[in-house]
Write a structure and sequence with these properties.
This protein has 125 residues and is an alpha+beta fold. Helix content is 30%, strand content 25%. The protein is globular.
Length: 125
């Protein structure tokens, strides 16, 4: 059975291999509580001062939502956020075309839907 790292990594790789919108400048991963799942969107803007940038969706993969292993649902939401944030950080440092797409974005964030964004990557200019 695949680990949660492998499950998320395969999904991100498959998702980011799809046709991307040229309007996409940043990415946001949204976590959902019940059931425990995650989605990925590309956005048309990024602002470190205005977190509503994550609502300006211009792209999503065909398999937008990934159901995460049910055994993680018993963890407190803070631990699930930390778990997925750390997985995303590890994915970002890989040498792969999908990781390169995220690394080249202005920003990559993760949060529970309607929660505060955690900026995992921000490109410096």
């Amino acid at each position: 059975m695949d680990t949660i790292d492998e499950i998320m990594g395969k999904w991100l790789t498959l998702s980011l291999s799809e046709q991307l919108s040229q309007k996409t400048v940043a990415y946001c991963l949204n976590l959902y509580d019940s059931p425990f799942r995650i989605d990925l969107v590309g956005t048309s803007r990024f602002s470190s001062r205005d977190y509503d940038w994550a609502c300006d969706e211009v792209w999503s993969p065909s398999d937008r939502i990934l159901d995460l292993p049910v055994e993680y649902s018993i963890l407190p939401w803070e631990e699930r956020l930390e778990l997925c944030t750390n997985i995303l950080r590890r994915f970002l440092v890989e040498e792969s075309p999908a990781a390169n797409i995220l690394q080249s974005a202005e920003a990559v964030a993760i949060s529970f839907c309607d929660g505060d964004l955690t900026i995992v990557h921000q490109r410096t200019f």
